[in-house]
Each structure stands twice: as C-alpha cells, then as structure tokens.
C-alpha cells in the first residue's frame, strides 16, 4: 500500500486529506518506495500503467531542441510569452488539425496553448460546466473515461455524469444507446458532452458518422461538443479516408455546424508526436467568445513554457503529407503491437478477456473468468508494485498496470477485474507483458487464497 508521511501539527485541507494518487501513477509511486527501502533487491519494473510514450519525438522538434535558432532563447532571455502562447505554436496545432481534414471542411479555428492536455481539460471544464452544488451544467462522458476528467471534475467541484459501456465477453465494449443518451441530457441538462474518438481507455473508435450524430444532439440541446483528439489518426480499421474528428463535420453533414460555435477540441503533442515530457497542449475552438474568455481565465497562470512552445512550433512548418506519413507510420507500429499483445495473452490463457482495440494505444484486460471471487485489481496492482516479481533470463521483473476502476465514473460490476495496459515500452518489453501479467496473477491468487484459507481456520 502507499505509505504516507507522519502527522503534521497544522491540519491539511479536507481535499488533501482524502486525495489519492491517480490510478495511472500510484503503482509507480509505490514501486519507487519499494526501491528506496530495498536498494539491493535489484528488481526492474516494466511500467505500462501510464501512457508515457518511449518512441523518439518528431525530427523537426528534436532538431529545434538540439540546434535552437531563437536568439532570445540562446542568450538566456526567457521572458513570458502571450497568455495564449506564441503564434507559431498555435499555428502548429492548427496545421496538424488541417492536415487531416476533408477538402470541404475549413473551420475557423481559435487556439491557445497551455502546459499539457490535462491543463486544457481543466480550462475547458471551467468554461463549459457549472458547480456541482448548483446542479447545473454537468459534463457528460462515456464510461469508462480517461481518469483525469473525473479527477479534475472533483477538484473543480464539477459534476460528471456518464453513459455506461460494458466490456463484453468477446472483448468489445457495448455501444452507446442514443435514446438513453438523450434521456440523460434531458434529465441533467449538461453544459457539454465529451468524446474521445480514439478512446482512452477502451480503445474504441468513434466513427465520423457517430461524431456527426453527437454534434446534432449537442446542437439540439444547446451543448458544447468537446473532443479529446490526443490520438488523432491512430485507428486500426480499414475503409477510413479521413481521420474521425469534430473538425471533419461539414455543413453538408450537419446543417448549421459552421455557425453553431459548439466545437472544442483538446489537443496535445504528447502521444502522436511522442513528446509526453514536453508538456504542450492546446484548446482549439470555433467559438470566438469561448476562446477570448478561456484566454482571460488563463492569464492567471501567465503562460506555458516559452522553450516548449518554441520546440513544438516546428510543426507549424511541416507539410500535410509529412504529418500524414508520420501518423501512418505510428499507426502501423501500434497496430502490430496491439495485435501481438492480444495474441500473446490468448496463447497463455484463452479465458482472459482482452480487447482488440480499434484505436489509440491501450488495451483493457479482464480476468473475471480466471480468478476466484473477491479478487480486486487495485490490490493486485499494489502486490506487483510492493512484493511481486518474476524471474526472466536471470533478471527479476515486475509489471505495473493501471487498475480500471479509476476509469469508471459509475459503479461497474466488472471494474474490479479489469486493468488498462499502455503500449508504450519497447517492442521487446511489450512481448514480456502478457507473460508477466499472467504469472503475477497466478502468484497473487495463490497467496490470496492461502491467506483466506488460513483466516478461516
């Protein structure tokens, strides 16, 4: 379990008193404590709990980092930039978006940048939602949802309501019922609906047709349509000509969309451009007032890193074909990794439920069919971080995964047996993930059941 520090004389806030680390970070914190307390144990952790991409970043950004040309940066004059970020980095995000649009889609885009996509999530929720105490304008999401939305909602006092999706025995998530969705909207009157077209954590692909339907619903109910497009272009199904996106909704698809001003996308360089540590995200909208007020709200935080803006700004000058080819290469890479992950799990134990992702870089694994009653994935993850290891070719290894319960806003009967795996380590390490997972499950279950038996004596 996570070890906390000693008591302090001055009482901390109720929020601090009850906050726990994110489900994607907790295992890493606990394993770090294990290492510091047992420095001679010599165990390596393969960390697939967090989507911390290990591939090299885009060469244009790397070139800027290694050989900067900006005179102020070179001589050490590192001043604040505009609150919304310099023009070049905003042009970079717009260039990325426009490189994947249908010819007839030419949205008028307003953009501001901040320190990573998570800060953008916070800003969007401030602009779209009301306080939970008022009961007004909650955020509507599809369960399971990226854990940060629920966490940030809690920090801001924003109510998050969700539409259930269940992982079926065949490894596919159930579809969203449009009728149920509309009933929820009429009941709770949300300020906006969040979609993640290349879904984290489920790996589900939201088609352009579905996005268009969501846009119609949002227009009908005077809601913002918010799209987290961190994994734009990472889809693994055939027959797609243009990457599904809220910016690929044409006037012919949804009448009035160009003047409605309901679209907001959350952008980042972390995933598709392999720059998680760069911390550069953007809020992009077709609503001028929303942009202006988002900028006003963000002046409190002065500006994001000028150095990171400069590095990311390199993508403003990349051609459409370069950006498309870059994403195509990543798509082929992740498709292979995800397919091998599924195949290797099924070879080890056909009874494990494993998703076959259509998009993004994650897989959900469900052990409901191979464990005994009372199994808890959170506890298993802590076992792996605190105690467990498997010896492979003379090396002691453990595995860090993210317990899926942290991705569910609603109670889900299968959340306790599910984990999310991020395909972010090297290919050779990804090959080890299924074996380590299955072996550690067997270890854990043996110890757990022996403990239960002993307690009943």
TrEMBL record:
Lineage: Bacteria, Pseudomonadati, Campylobacterota, Desulfurellia, Desulfurellales
Keyword Cell cycle: no
Cofactor dependence: pyridoxal 5'-phosphate
CDD domains found in the cross-reference section: AAT_like
Keywords from the named record: Aminotransferase, Pyridoxal phosphate, Transferase
InterPro entries membership: Aminotransferase_I/II_large, AspAT/PAT-like, PyrdxlP-dep_Trfase, PyrdxlP-dep_Trfase_major, PyrdxlP-dep_Trfase_small
Keyword Transferase part of the UniProt annotation: yes
This protein's name: Aminotransferase class I/II-fold pyridoxal phosphate-dependent enzyme
Annotated GO biological process: amino acid metabolic process
Family named by the database record: Belongs to the class-I pyridoxal-phosphate-dependent aminotransferase family.
PANTHER family given in the database record: ASPARTATE AMINOTRANSFERASE (PTHR46383)
Domain Aminotransferase class I/classII large: 45-387
Pfam families: Aminotran_1_2 (PF00155)
GO molecular function: pyridoxal phosphate binding; transaminase activity
């Amino acid at each position: 379990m996570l070890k906390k520090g000693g008591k302090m004389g001055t009482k901390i806030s109720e929020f601090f008193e009850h906050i726990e680390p994110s489900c994607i970070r907790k295992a890493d914190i606990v394993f770090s404590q294990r290492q510091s307390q047992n420095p001679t144990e010599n165990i390596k952790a393969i960390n697939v709990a967090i989507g911390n991409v290990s591939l090299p970043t885009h060469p244009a950004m790397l070139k800027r980092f290694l050989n900067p040309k900006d005179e102020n940066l070179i001589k050490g004059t590192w001043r604040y930039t505009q609150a919304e970020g310099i023009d070049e980095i905003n042009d970079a995000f717009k260039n990325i978006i426009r490189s994947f649009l249908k010819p007839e889609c030419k949205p008028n885009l307003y953009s501001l940048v901040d320190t990573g996509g998570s800060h953008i999530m916070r800003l969007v929720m401030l602009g779209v939602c009301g306080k939970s105490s008022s009961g007004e304008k909650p955020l509507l999401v599809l369960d399971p949802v990226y854990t940060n939305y629920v966490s940030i909602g809690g920090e801001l006092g924003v109510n998050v309501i969700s539409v259930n999706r269940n992982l079926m025995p065949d490894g596919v998530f159930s579809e969203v019922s449009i009728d149920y969705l509309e009933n929820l909207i009429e009941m709770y009157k949300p300020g906006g609906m969040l979609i993640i077209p290349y879904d984290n954590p489920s790996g589900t692909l939201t088609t352009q047709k579905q996005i268009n339907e969501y846009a119609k619903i949002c227009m009908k109910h005077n809601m913002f349509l918010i799209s987290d497009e961190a994994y734009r272009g990472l889809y693994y199904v055939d027959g797609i000509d243009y990457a599904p996106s809220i910016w690929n909704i044409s006037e012919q698809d949804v009448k009035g969309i160009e003047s409605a001003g309901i679209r907001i996308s959350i952008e980042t360089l972390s995933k598709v451009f392999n720059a998680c540590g760069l911390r550069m995200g953007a809020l992009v909208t077709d609503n001028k007032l929303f942009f202006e007020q988002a900028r006003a709200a963000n002046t409190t935080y002065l500006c994001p890193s000028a150095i990171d803006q400069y590095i990311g700004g390199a993508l403003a000058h990349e051609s459409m074909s370069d950006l498309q080819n870059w994403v195509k290469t990543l798509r082929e890479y992740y498709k292979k990794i995800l397919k091998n992950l599924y195949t290797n799990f099924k070879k080890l134990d056909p009874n494990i439920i494993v998703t076959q992702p259509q998009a993004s870089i994650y897989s959900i694994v469900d052990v409901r069919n191979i464990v005994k009653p009372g199994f808890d994935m959170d506890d298993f993850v802590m076992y792996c971080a605190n105690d467990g290891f498997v010896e492979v070719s003379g090396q002691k290894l453990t595995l860090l995964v993210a317990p899926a319960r942290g991705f569910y806003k609603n109670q889900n009967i299968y959340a306790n047996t599910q984990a999310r795996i991020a395909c972010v380590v090297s290919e050779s390490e990804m090959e080890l993930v299924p074996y380590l997972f299955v072996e550690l499950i067997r270890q854990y279950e043996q110890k757990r059941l022996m403990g239960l038996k002993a307690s009943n004596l």
